[in-house]
Write a structure and sequence with these properties.
By secondary structure, the protein is α+β, with helices and mostly antiparallel strands. The protein folds into 4 domains: 329 residues, Metalloenzyme, LuxS/M16 peptidase-like (Cytochrome Bc1 Complex, Chain A, domain 1), CATH 3.30.830.10; 182 residues, Metalloenzyme, LuxS/M16 peptidase-like (Cytochrome Bc1 Complex, Chain A, domain 1, 2-Layer Sandwich), CATH 3.30.830; 146 residues, Metalloenzyme, LuxS/M16 peptidase-like (Cytochrome Bc1 Complex, Chain A, domain 1); 205 residues, Metalloenzyme, LuxS/M16 peptidase-like (Cytochrome Bc1 Complex, Chain A, domain 1, 2-Layer Sandwich). It is built from 39 helices and 26 strands. The chain has a 7-stranded mixed beta sheet with strand order 1-7-8-6-9-5-4, with helices on both faces. α2 crosses α11, α31 packs across α36 and α34 runs antiparallel to α36. The two termini are 37 Å apart. 48% of the residues are buried.
Length: 980
């Protein structure tokens, strides 16, 4: 499960899709159909319905029939805020346990299992109150012993197996400060099965397999200790909220509390907060709401009404001076500061806060975008907002250039805020913000996930009672005046901030959650509960898959020498135009540099800043994205601004003027970014894997060198940009215009020469044969160890698609797979683990076996042995196989490839040498495959093969001799990984 962390992108997305179209009138109305009364808001583009069942459960429905799937979110208005002071992390523990089943599923015999569960609960209470080290070990030994007996009756991951069998995707959950949300994405015909499972799930959960799940939470905590961003966020909140649980209780919990869990306390939390009046169900997708509410009522009426307990946090004392904190870790330096503001209950202030945040940073024309990022005064800067019930936050973040201090970055960020305070900004920017919000919502309405997320967020924040305010949000933003912005900044945004400097250095955190002794539990793979069989027997109306006929669904034409691929948008007035080039970074490493340089250039008519403002004012966007073998230019927005947007972009590219000062600053920033990349764990791990697949010269380290970067001139980069349209490219259009009209328009807007220029020959990277076991080791200051297995296999063969699809689902594709069950559920050796047979993206490519374990460093030897055992010997589990086959067929049957995705599906198929919808073969074939088929595949392609072990960890925390026994050992330096 995921613990929700702060993300500017996520928060902005929530804000964008919590709003509604600007309409004339928004009013609450009541309606009754078939005995069910619901509330709705007039002119709501989501047409959301809000029901309250007799037991207090809130149900929110938004019908959207674009595809036969439904996004389902079940939210509880209780998170780490509500944790007892002496048991932090409890809400998150409970989230994990809601996947362990009930008395009806997850167990072979609940009656026989029950006394052992009770004994485990009692033993944990003793353990929780025992302080003597030897006595604690003795108690834990008892817990482990009894847990082993209880586990003989358990069916691990039966919940995940059932959800897989009904075709659900993205089974997950998250816990945050105010919420716990459980999520599924199901085929529309599986509603009855889904509701049966969820009703039972929340009626009487059993907290079985606790000590192995406890270890998974330990792993999650240790991963957080290795994450500098998590440490920075915790430091920020603790400074911002010295009294409120927002800052005083982390969602994951303290190490001390994690080591002393209480199943009694967890049960009390469940009984207190998991009550209908504190829970909401949000569904968006293909359903009839009148039928859906009847089904939900029938399924969830079994939950009895209970009093609702709400965490009412203390009121924080106003900050009178800056609070400064520091965090140290191996990743690159950065800083973040935040202001504390009224919560969502103060709708007016929340609306003004959104305007202020966007005036500061909107990605194009905000003060920070123009004055700092565009002028390259910092390495990067951003602003965002976070809205909670009791308080909201405005956050400013930045990274320093080489030779620049974080203190200087802070001063530059605050200077932009001071411009707002003084009213030194163009009020028309507020109008442009509104236009861009509307554009974002128009796109967002197409997504069931966006709709369901908006509904559940509204429920968490205000139980949906202020949905009228959510729908009118953009209208309310449009009413905000310049003076209101100035007054808001003067009132709330002064020297009352908390600032965290993330410094680079050796982490000061030495503690971690230690590995407890755990005896592996039995998996019981080939058993099924009576309840699971009942769910399987619930009848469904079969969904018929829809195959893409590329010849019929894609319009084709020509504009000069360029091919045109076309799909009409019949839903709204949005367009997306692509120029897709057969040239990429492997043809010219300077291409990515030129694309980045473009954002700082003007042309013969406008400065770079003016061009950014013009695009933002017409609510249009452009991106230039060089890939390895292709480059894609994207221009998007409202069709009414198509001509202006295309003309504006083409004039920029064809007439951009070299700017030496901009290039000097860009080079300095890139050199700093390249140096910072060598401090980032994720970058190092990706580079190490690329090294294992391709060898010393590989796609990851094929980057422009520092010498090449310093040598390139402004004129050379401008010439690359001026000449870009002279190379072969395909024009792709998705929009409301008819094909003939579009062709006529694009010929005028995008004139081309008679012939395309020959592109420079691309470098080729070839996957290396694995001839012996190798260990590629790179040291990193971290608590955990991360190991990735690599073996390059066969050349691409389209006929193998069905067996590979089924094998990946069976072996290591999700929480119900063999790998996850064995390594995490049975042996508690990792929080994250997976394995799959990775297909290439072109017919000349080769498959690669990839496996991964992220474990505590002191469990690395055991984790490696566990994965190696599975790579060599494939366990047999018919129920997992059957679920995998059904899941694949259900997923394909309910999938609808639409809009411009049709064109990109076609282009992907072409690269693989296929001219038909590849899903059809999988759908028609996978049902007939047997265990013998996937076992043969496993024996042929994985078992006994030599692997490269890519290992990232601290050498002080592992036994290096154990590592060297795995194969030929090589310590790979950062210079070798990054190429500089």
């Amino acid at each position: 499960m995921l613990t929700l962390k702060f993300s500017f992108a996520i928060l902005l997305l929530f804000t964008l899709f919590n709003a509604g179209f600007a309409q004339k009138k928004f009013e609450w109305k009541d309606a009754t159909v078939n005995g069910y009364t619901y509330r709705y808001v007039t002119n709501d583009p989501m047409k959301a319905r809000f029901y309250t069942l007799k037991n207090g459960l809130t149900v929110m429905l938004s019908s959207n029939i674009k595809e036969p799937r439904i996004k389902a979110l079940i939210g509880v208005r209780a998170g780490s805020n509500s944790d007892p002071k002496d048991h932090t992390g409890l809400a998150h523990y409970l989230e994990h346990l809601l996947f362990k089943g009930t008395y009806k599923y997850g167990s072979l015999d609940s009656a026989k299992e029950k006394p052992f569960i009770a004994e485990i609960t009692s033993l944990y209470d003793v353990y929780n109150h025992t302080t003597d080290t030897l006595q604690r070990k003795a108690v834990y030994h008892q817990i482990d012993s009894v847990s082993g007996i209880a586990a003989k009756y358990a069916i691990p991951n039966e919940y995940d197996k059932m959800m897989t069998s009904i075709g659900s995707q993205g089974t997950n959950a998250h816990t945050s400060v105010e919420e716990t949300v459980y999520e599924e994405d199901i085929p529309a015909n599986s509603v009855d099965k889904f509701l049966a499972i969820q009703s039972e799930r929340f009626t009487n959960p059993v907290f079985r397999l606790f000590h192995t799940e406890l270890e998974a939470v330990y792993e999650e905590k240790n991963r957080g200790l290795d994450n500098d961003g998590s440490k920075t966020w915790e430091a920020l909140l603790s400074g911002m909220f010295p009294s409120h649980n927002y800052g005083q209780q982390t969602t994951i919990g303290t190490i001390e509390h994690l080591k002393n869990p209480s199943l009694i306390a967890i049960r009390n939390f469940y009984n207190t907060y998991y009550v209908p009046g504190n829970m909401g169900i949000a569904l968006s997708g293909d359903f009839n709401p009148d039928e859906m509410i009847r089904k939900i009522d029938k399924a969830f009426s079994v939950l009895p009404a209970k009093p609702v307990v709400v965490y009412n946090g203390p009121k924080e004392t106003p900050l009178m001076a800056p609070v400064i904190k520091e965090v140290v870790g191996p990743d690159a330096e950065n800083m973040v500061l935040a202001f504390r503001l009224p919560g969502v209950a103060d709708r007016k202030e929340e609306v003004v806060l959104s305007v202020v945040s966007q005036l500061l940073s909107n990605g194009k024309a905000g003060l920070m975008d123009i004055n700092l990022n565009k002028q390259q005064k910092v390495l990067s800067s951003n602003a965002g907002e976070l809205n909670w019930k009791d308080y909201s936050l405005l956050l400013l973040s930045g990274k320093a250039k080489d030779g620049q201090s974080l203190e200087e970055v802070k001063d530059l960020l605050l200077a932009q805020l001071d411009l707002l305070r003084k009213g030194t900004f163009d009020e028309t920017l507020i109008r442009a913000i509104i236009s861009n919000y509307k554009l974002a919502e128009l796109s967002g309405l197409e997504s069931n996930e966006n709709r369901a997320t908006a509904l559940i967020t509204g429920f968490i924040q205000h139980k949906g009672l202020d949905w009228k305010g959510d729908v009118s949000y953009i209208d309310d933003m449009a009413k905000v005046t310049k003076q209101e912005v100035v007054d808001f900044v003067k009132k709330y945004l002064n020297d009352n901030y908390v600032l965290v400097y993330k410094r680079k250095g050796k982490s000061k955190i030495t503690d971690k959650v230690q590995k407890p002794p755990i005896t592996p539990i039995p998996i019981n793979r080939d058993v099924q509960s009576v309840f699971s069989k009942y769910v399987a027997s619930i009848p469904v109306n079969a969904l018929k898959p829809k195959w893409i006929d590329y010849d019929k669904e894609i319009g084709k034409s020509k504009a000069g020498n360029a091919d045109i691929l076309y799909v009409q948008n019949k839903d709204n007035d949005l367009f997306r135009l692509y120029y897709r080039f057969d040239i990429g970074n492997w043809n010219d490493r300077r291409l990515g540099l030129a694309a980045g340089y473009l954002q700082f250039l003007g042309n013969n008519k406008f400065t770079s800043e003016e061009i950014s403002r013009q695009f933002y004012n017409i609510a249009c966007n452009f991106t230039v994205s060089p890939g390895n073998e292709n480059t894609t230019i994207t221009i998007s927005g409202l069709q009414e601004n198509f001509d202006r947007a295309v003309k504006l972009f083409e004039n920029l590219v064809l007439n951009c003027k070299p700017d030496e000062n901009a290039l000097i600053n860009l080079k300095a920033r890139l050199l700093k970014s390249k140096a910072d990349a060598k401090s980032n764990k994720q970058n190092i791990a990706r580079g190490l894997v690329s090294y294992a697949i391709y060898g010393e010269k590989n796609p990851f380290n094929y980057q422009i060198s520092n010498e090449e970067l310093n040598a390139v001139t402004a004129g050379q980069l401008a010439d690359i940009l001026h000449d870009v349209f002279k190379y072969k490219h395909t024009i792709i259009y998705y929009g409301p215009e008819k094909l003939d009209a579009f062709v006529a328009d694009i010929k005028v807007a995008h004139p081309l020469g008679a012939e395309f220029r020959t592109a420079p020959e691309a470098i080729k990277f070839v996957k290396k044969d694995n001839t012996q076991n190798k260990v590629l080791f790179t040291p990193y200051d971290m608590v955990q160890a991360e190991i990735t297995w690599i073996n390059n296999s066969l050349n691409y063969d389209t006929s193998k698609a069905p067996v590979i699809e089924l094998f990946n689902s069976y072996f290591g594709g999700d929480m119900g797979s063999i790998v996850f069950q064995s390594i995490r559920e049975s042996k508690a050796l990792a929080y994250s683990t997976y394995a799959f047979y990775s297909a290439p993206d072109k017919k000349e490519g080769r498959y690669t076996t990839v496996a991964y374990v992220g474990s505590q460093a002191d469990k690395m030897k055991e984790a490696v042995a566990a994965m190696n055992e599975l790579l060599d010997t494939l366990p047999h589990a018919e129920d997992i196989l059957a679920n995998g086959k059904e899941s694949i067929r259900q997923s394909i049957a309910s999938e609808r490839i639409t809009q411009d995705a049709i064109i990109f599906s076609y282009l992907s198929a072409k690269r693989l040498g296929v001219n038909t919808d590849m899903r059809k073969r999988v759908y028609e074939t996978v049902g007939a495959l047997s265990f013998d088929d996937i076992k043969k595949f496993h024996d042929d392609e994985m078992s006994g093969k030599p692997y490269s072990y890519c290992v990232l960890c601290s050498p002080a925390k592992i036994n290096m001799d154990d590592l060297k026994k795995l194969g030929e050992f090589k310590e790979v330096s950062l210079q070798e990984i990054f190429g500089y």
